[in-house]
Amino acid sequence: NDKVATVDGGKVTAVGEGSTTVTATAGGKSATCTVTVYASEDTVDTFDDLVSAVGAASEGDTVVIGADMTVTETVVLDKAVTVTSVTGVKLSVSGSVAVFDMTSGGATIDGIEIEKTDKTNVDGLVKMGEGATMNGCTITGRYADGDSEVVRGFTQIAGSSITVTNNTFIELRQPGYVEGKGTISGNYAAGTRGFVVTENSEVTIENNSFGENAVDIA
Predict the structure, then answer these.
(1) How many CB atoms lie within 10 A of CB 160?
(2) Model confidence pTM above 0.90
(3) pLDDT tens digits, 49-88
(4) Which of 96, 104, 149, 190 has its CA 20 to 30 Å from the CA of residue 58?
């Protein structure tokens, strides 16, 4: 739909509000992705506005992050809302602050880029509980093999069921601490000490890929 976006030489350019599908083909294979263009008035552009928008959202609503921002406190997603972002936007965080608390309510984060700018311990930059979903996100830290600090991409409430799909985890001590049920698939991890999966977990781990890690799944 060229009223939403156009493609020229591989470059996708936004044209108007809406969603469309872009297909790339090479070597006899093809892949598609959905491109969504938001109106600027439909996005939140400061951290305070993000917190306010999440608080005011009703179940089923989507909150769209439209600009880079620094996270100064944990954003609590305790209802079935979706938080997504415009492509290229980054949430930066430092210290011991978790970015999202999704331990109740069945919320979703989709396409969010998070950068941990220091090595301070954080048990989970995203805390997940029953029904929580993380899809298409990128979480990058400062971990180097041998560091004593513990920074994890996500942690799971024991016994809960979560969905973690198509995410990228880079330079974190662990991509995630898994302690329950659900699905972990299509993710990529590099520069980590591997996923931790606790005794009695019933999670399905499949179709993930790995770069250079101390181990992949521990």
Answers:
(1) 17
(2) no
(3) 999 999 999 999 999 999 999 999 999 999 999 999 998 8
(4) 96
Local confidence band at 153 (pLDDT 50, 70, 90 cut-offs):
very high
Mean pLDDT within 165-194: 97
Dihedral sign from CA coordinates of 21, 22, 25, 31? negative
Say which residues have a Cβ less than 8 Å from residue 102's Cβ, sequence separation at least 6.
77, 109, 126, 127, 128, 129, 132, 134
Q: What residues contact 148, with CB distance under 8 A and at least 6 apart? A: none
Phi-psi region of 55 (alpha: psi -120 to 50; beta: other; left: phi over 0): alpha
- Distance separating alpha carbons of residues 66 and 46, to the nearest angstrom: 8
